[in-house]
Amino acid sequence: MRKLSKRKKKWIERTVANDRSYKIVLYNRFFLFLLAVLWQLVGYALLILAFAYDSTIGATVQLVVGVLAILFVLRIINRNERPSSKLSWIILILIFPVFGVPTYLFSGGGRPTRDMRKKIARAKAENNKRLEKEDAINEETRSRENAISRYLSVCGGYPVYKSGTIDYYKCGEEAFPEMLAALEKAEKFILVEYFIIAHGKMWNEILKRLVEKAMQGVRVRIIYDDFGCMVTLPPKYELYLESLHENIKCMTFNDVVPFFSVRMNNRDHRKMLVIDGKVAFTGGINLADEYINEKERFGYWKDSALKITGAAVNSFTEMFFYMWNAFRKDKEELREYILPQETEKETGIVIHPYDDSPLDNISVGESAYVDLINRASKSVWIFTPYLVLDDFLRASLCQAALRGVDVRIVTPGIPDKKTVYRLTRANYAPLMKSGVKIYEYAPGFIHAKSMVCDGEAAIVGTINLDYRSLYHHFENAVYFSGCKAVDEVKRDCEETFAISKLCTPENTKRGFFGKLIDSMLRVFETLL
Fold first, then answer.
1. What is the DSSP code (8-state) at residue 482?
2. What are phi and psi of 377, to 5 degrees?
3. The pairing of beta strand 305-309 with beta strand 219-225
4. CATH for 364-527 (3.40.50.300, 3.40.1280.10, 3.30.870.10, 3.40.920.10)
5. Residue 509: what pLDDT?
6. Are 140 and 281 in contact (CB under 8 A)?
7. Are the CB atoms for 481 and 458 separated by under 8 Å?
8. By three-state DSSP, how is residue 483 classified?
């Protein structure tokens, strides 16, 4: 990676220290990106007008675009994807072919580029060669009760663990001190991977400890998503971090480019902090002040996190390094970071970390959620900031409610994105008709992503109930059962229900035009 000049380093330090200039720099970067995209849209519009001006050329172009539209519709029909996603693209292309065909080309239907696929597949294969994985699929996991662990082992690629500990935190304020305490104890390495890192108390406290530990000889590796941090960190911030100490290395995932690109769809939405292979943190919490309520954005910010100890931490280390080794020229030797497997007494606990990626046509995240929903005999309680469902997930929720399962979903009372919030509310009616209870979190915004089934098993992670999170992004989560943490998730749900507003057909009723807008939005919900 290129070195950061002393002048550039001082500029970034002044930018971060001076909050006003910091914001100016950030928003300049953001608006320059928007202007570049707008310039391309204007170019396409002018090109279309030029063809329309000459009737002969315009007719030829219209014929070519029409033929292309039909060809792309046939291609979409034959793709192995959800019907709801296919329908959205087909409608867009047939109604607006001049706009729809280029949009489909640029987005790639949400699939990663061939280059990204090859790099990550190669890195995963190298990881597997360097490690002798234990066979986690034994006879016990073939039973119905453990079918989800078998599925996650086969499709997710990570084993199930029957030992270790798992702690649940119902908000960022509870998790943050534990994260700092774990960082203080680091002796060998620290791995940091987050969608958003933002200047403020949370990141400053963490960065302070990262630098201190680097000076003590601890290896620090950092990954953050460039799009997620586009308005929170200055440009070339990764070079600034590397300039702080030779033991700190940093990588931005999928750098934002100011032109339409297929690869811009796929973001690293994962969140994990790994210390010495002994402790791992994950959940919905990013490294920004709103997540610990040091800064108010949309009322009270409700989130959740997990702390895992024991052999299961190795799975997080593997997740981190297949991403790192896929895109860094200076590869890391995975064996140096994986702790030896020690024989531990099984305690009845199940801890199963996994990740999900858009590299295949399997949504591991959605399948794990659906398995919990279909398995439930008493209750399914869900926290999600967005409720933009495809037909498969919607049908599972409705069927569970119709067979008598207590299905409850908590969504934000104060939204962060107005359009997605409208789409979220547009999904209420069909769910409520089937008996699903929907609550809106009155104190503010709920960013937690969790599901608890029958009070016996739970999933907590980074995966939202929306199409982009389930199919386009790199995500991670943990399935767990047989431990106190499940009871804590259940208790958190009960406390949250008590301070949330129960939605009814009466208090969520839309007028004619409101229903019309909702219907139009739902047609294209899988594209947002």
1. S
2. -115, -20
3. unpaired
4. 3.30.870.10
5. 82
6. no
7. yes
8. coil
Find the helix or strand (DSSP H, E) in which 523 lies. helix 512-523
Mean pLDDT of the chain: 83
Per-domain residue ranges of the chain:
6-110, 115-137+167-345, 364-527
Question: Is residue 401's pLDDT more than 70?
Answer: yes
**Length of the chain measured in residues:** 528
Give me the residue label for tokens 């990881």: 127
> Comparing C-alpha atoms, which of 147, 213, 48, 114 is closest to residue 352?
147
**Rounded to whole angstroms, how far apart are CA atoms 323 and 254?**
11
Query: What tens digit of pLDDT does each residue of 465-488 get?
Result: 998 898 889 999 999 999 999 999
Q: Taking a C-beta distance cutoff of 8 angstroms, is the pair 31, 231 a contact?
A: no
Give the pLDDT band (50/70/90) at residue 93: confident
Query: Among 80-84, 276-280, 474-478, which stretch is predicted with the lowest mean pLDDT?
Result: 80-84
List 460's β-bridge partners, or say none.
Answer: 450, 478
- The SS3 call for residue 415 is coil
Is 229 in a helix, a strand, or coil? coil
Helices 19-53, 6-17: axis angle to 10 degrees equals 100
CA-to-CA distance for 407 and 398, rounded, in angstroms? Answer: 9
- pLDDT band with cut points at 50, 70 and 90 for residue 493: very high
Q: Which residues of 168-192 are buried (b: 16+ CB within 10 A; e: fewer)?
A: bbbbbeebbeebeebbeebeebbbb
Helix (H) or strand (E) holding 461: strand 457-461
Domain 115-137+167-345 has CATH 3.40.50.150: no
pLDDT tens sequence across 190-211 = 999 999 999 999 999 999 999 9
Tokens representing residue 123 in the block: 């890195």
Tokens of 261: 């690109």
